[in-house]
From TrEMBL:
It comes from the Bacteria. The keyword Oxidoreductase applies. This is (2Fe-2S)-binding protein. Keywords: 2Fe-2S, Iron, Iron-sulfur, Metal-binding, Oxidoreductase. Residues 49-158 form the Rieske domain. One of its GO terms (molecular function) is monooxygenase activity. PANTHER family: CHOLINE MONOOXYGENASE, CHLOROPLASTIC. Pfam families: Rieske, Ring_hydroxyl_A. Its cofactor is Fe cation. CDD domains: RHO_alpha_C_GbcA-like (cd08884), Rieske_RO_Alpha_N (cd03469). It comes from Mycolicibacterium sarraceniae.
Amino acid sequence: MFKQTPAPVPAGDLAASLAPFGQSRMLPRAAYVDAEVFEWEKLHIFSGWHCVGQASDLDGVGAQKAVGSGANGILLVRGEDHQVRAFANVCRHRGHEMLACGATAKRRGIVCPYHSWSYKLDGELRKAPGFDAAKDFDSSQFGLAELRLVNWHGYLFVDPSGADIDFDEHVAGMEDVIGPYRPEDLTVVARHSYELATNWKVIVENYQECYHCSTIHPELSKISPPTSGENLDLPGDWIGGWMSMIDEAETMSLSGRSGGVAIKGLSEQELRSVMYLVGFPNLLVSLHPDYVMTHLMTPLAVDRTHVECAWAFPKEALDKPDFDPSYAVDFWDLTNRQDWTACESVQRGLSSPHARPGPLAPDEDGVYQFVTRVARAYSGSR
Ligand code: FES
Ligand SMILES: [Fe+2]
């Protein structure tokens, strides 16, 4: 992220969040319940690098999809050269969205649904009805506004502001962690869509600790001891850590058995553990020995978040005649729902005027990394 104006939260509360681990407090209550803070986050956090989906979501030349909305409305398009591009989702005529948020299309051009201006797949204006004879109308001046986009291991990241740090800095330290799983070669075979009545940060904070696991995840705790593993210390905008599995388990599933095939080339450590990563701010990536699960969060309001969970498997698993991804999907759908119940309860709790930022337990150092990352952004620094 980049230097910015401070968020509308009390500076004293931020100082408490930024105190050394062991003495610090959670983010101020306003961070979770105040619509003004949410608006600030849209302008100052989600206007920088954030994930907008996977390249495989845009299947073939001419595939189009609108994501985000308002200031961060983005149109994704796969061009004639097979590259995915991102444009501001706004027509250069009078501002209509090219597609409604979440909508998809597939055609050899981009057509505005209002007065039918049409653009090439690279954003250049092709035709503006009625302007053919107009003198001084220079169509090259009216192309769609292209945004910085990077396709990193199949994940699409966009910087609508154009002012965020270099993408390499954003993902510094991640190549060695994610690279061996080659997510770009995996196939998404299952997706679940959840709409949660909670702030997006409550979901990340929950993901960043297993202090709650023995209480609310009996199935997970049987396969992966809640106190196992450790958090990474990464130089870029990503945070995360790994947890190990019991010796008898091959992967995270109800039985610990895998119904798939291990991803080729993983190390012994990678085959015995699961890596849980947060691509700040909105992508959660869980690297398993035999599949990669992602949670892509789209904040809808201060107390509402859309989460799309996707499970991707290697080709060798899909080639198995009896391949059934439900061993992974059912396990995590159950675990997700246990988490969502807790996250929504936290949101209701935080809506009480009596809620105060609480302290962090020794096992919540991952939460500390996230909270301090947000608190630094709120205070106007990196
Ligand atoms: S607003 Fe798009 S054609 Fe008029
Ligand atoms: Fe959980």
